[in-house]
Amino acid sequence: MPGRGRGRCRGRRWVQELPQSSMEPRSYKLQPNSVCLTVEEAEIIRLIDLEELTQEQAASLMGVSRKTLWNDLKRARRKIAHAVLHGHPICVTGGTYKIKNEKEVNDDYAWWR
């Protein structure tokens, strides 16, 4: 199949909410040195580092395996570290995700509370 890389297609991840803003000034277009996180990577950072969920809990909420979540988390943290240490702007855009409605979010949270 032409144009297709190795492995399986990237599956959708559930995202509870879209990020409210990015660290890049809105008046600027994407700069060549901008570091862009996907919406899913921003959601993983929110769940693990801000909400302090375990990887297993976060993976369940996002509808992926713990290994998949770990790979995405590692990639997101590396991007953030690169941006912070080299002074690059960070933007959040794109990705393969689906927004959960309130009912779906509450159902998923119920099992571990």
Give the SSE layout:
Blueprint (H helix, E strand, L loop, with lengths): L12 E3 L19 E3 L1 H12 L4 H8 L3 H21 L3 E3 L4 E3 L2 H9 L3
Parallel strand pairs: 1-4, 2-3
Helix pairs in contact: 1-3, 2-3
Main attributes of the structure:
Arc Repressor Mutant, subunit A, two-stranded parallel ribbon, 113 residues, mainly alpha, 4 strands, disordered C terminus, two-stranded parallel sheet
Structure explained in plain terms:
This protein is 44% helix and 11% strand. Residues 23-28 and 104-113 have low confidence and may be disordered. Helix 1 crosses helix 3 (66-86) and helix 2 crosses helix 3 (66-86). The longest helix has 21 residues, at 66-86. The protein has helices at residues 39-50, 55-62, 66-86, 102-110, and strands at 13-15, 35-37, 90-92, 97-99. It has 113 residues and is mainly α. Strands 1-4 form a two-stranded parallel sheet. A two-stranded parallel ribbon has the order 2-3. The chain is globular. It has a domain at 38-104: Orthogonal Bundle (Arc Repressor Mutant, subunit A), CATH 1.10.10.
